[in-house]
Amino acid sequence: MKYPTIDQSLFILNRNNFAKELKNNSLAIFQANDEFPRSGDQNFIFKQNPDLFYLSGIDQEQTILLLYPDCPNPLYRQVLFLRQTNDYIKVWEGYKYTKEQAKEASGIESIYWLEDFDNILHSIIHYADNIYLNTNENDRYAHAVPYRDIRFIEQMRSKYPLHHYERSAPIMRGLRAIKSDIEIELTQKACAITRDAFVRVLKFTKPGVKEYEIEAEIIHEFIRQGGTGHAYTPIIASGHNANILHYNDNNQECKEGDVILFDFGAEYANYNADMSRSIPVNGRFSKRQKEVYNAVLHVMKEATKLIVADTVWNTYHEQVGEIMTEQLINLGLISTADVKNQSAQWPAYKKYFMHGTSHHLGIDVHDFAGRYTPFAVGNILTVEPGIYIPEEGLGIRLENNILITSSGNLDLMADIPLEAEEIEDIMNGGN
């Protein structure tokens, strides 16, 4: 891990909150993510199951968390099972948690090696009335491969067919959306690293550089400051590439007169930043580019005002759509007649702004939260309007990360250059 140990109070709080939502006399089990093969003898870099990390703080493969608050044996009310290290693993793979280190990281007293899991589970499971098992219920995800949680459910149902099974995901959906102070601090750190990478890019970019050279500057700053790396595959989309929403080839030359659309963020301690910016390759926006830029900026600022507690998701997006419609008319991209004749399913503004404005942010970049649950204090959401004009080879997107507080909202990226003039000033030698 590149980040300092997180205060265990975060994970103790999270487990206590989870336990309060369980039915009486219930046992819950969480599995680490799989280690996915990359090539013949290599795996992809391991990424922990966010629910397991949320409840334990353990950032290691082959980990199991067992929670049984009403267990008749107090020793097994909270148990962590870890992969046991040895001299061979120490030489070839390096650091693995000792029992003491896992206890310090998680705040859990009962730590066992993985080989003890089956025996301990079997000794207590028959006393539980309900078994809570976990799956990835993020509504942006559909699995094609039966990952570890799915395989474990099949094993449990085969071995203990008469138990009553429950889903942990609905509980996690409610808990993870509300960020604690420590989670906010970690997200703010990810945003700060992202800021420094963006300023670095502003000073580096000029006509003739390749998109991948800019990507290299970004990852340099992320790793230099202790970030794990990219929160997601970065988008460095110059010119026409900006009209491909998920463009990540990042292999083209940045040319005089073009605008580059950036969408990148740092991951720090498993928490993520998610930022979009658009900058002129030559350091100066053209008149038209600035018009479109300021239109997107206006929508962004107005949408941010709407990110408050009790806002309903669908209503929010409809309101943002109305704001965007006005800007597109002003830019001459759509007409009042287009708006008059639009369909409810595909309003006129969707021709130039076809994606959503906001999503929850946290351990997952598109964080686990209720799509139909009103916004609440403690939510962190992105605000990311864009205007994409293929016929002009121009795409502009701007995105900041917003925390809802009891007194309104707080922009976690307020110190990242955003105004067109500020960007131009830095690109031309300003601080």
Automatic annotation (TrEMBL):
Annotated EC: 3.4.11.9
Known catalytic reactions: Release of any N-terminal amino acid, including proline, that is linked to proline, even from a dipeptide or tripeptide
Q: Which Pfam families match?
A: AMP_N, Peptidase_M24
The protein's enzyme class = hydrolase
Keywords of the record, alphabetical order, are:
Aminopeptidase, Hydrolase, Manganese, Metal-binding, Metalloprotease, Protease
Please report the stretch or stretches of sequence annotated as the Aminopeptidase P N-terminal domain.
6-142
In the record, what terms sit under GO molecular function? aminopeptidase activity
**CDD domains in the cross-refs:** Prolidase
Necessary cofactors? Mn(2+)
Protein family according to the UniProt entry: Belongs to the peptidase M24B family.
Name the record gives this protein: Xaa-Pro aminopeptidase
The organism is Pedobacter fastidiosus
Print the organism lineage.
Bacteria, Pseudomonadati, Bacteroidota, Sphingobacteriia, Sphingobacteriales
